[in-house]
Amino acid sequence: MSEINKVVVRYLNGQVVKGTTEDFFPNRALFHLRPVGTQDKVDVVCRELKAVFFVRDFAGDPKRADAPGFASATPDIRKGKKIAVLFKDGEVLCGYTLTYMPDREGFFVNPADPANNNLRVYVLARAAREVRVGPAADGLVARAPRRAA
Which of 10, 51, 59, 127 falls 20 to 30 Å from 44 in CA-CA distance? Predict the structure, then answer.
């Protein structure tokens, strides 16, 4: 039996769809999503995506501000390489990765902030303006534009 994952799918065009998936696999051309409130499954074409956010819950906490950078990362989160992603839309994602390779279509990031609603994020490389790994990740975070919450 497949694991059911709660996800928030963010498209390159800004569209956001929340739902569940049982068949997401990295580097596959598509997967199926059952949007919240329906029993229907829709095809999600990965080349159209910014990222797939695997979440604790769909509501999150809109009043909570994510801790910037890597300072709040606990030892159990600090596995793999430190990574910062600046998306083309200006969003910055900070965390750790075991799967980043510059020539791949995508990679997983475990957020640095343990209180984040995101458990992990699958980033589509084409959606990133810039990716920095290791000590350079801190530099990207320091110079990235701050977005209002």
Answer: 59
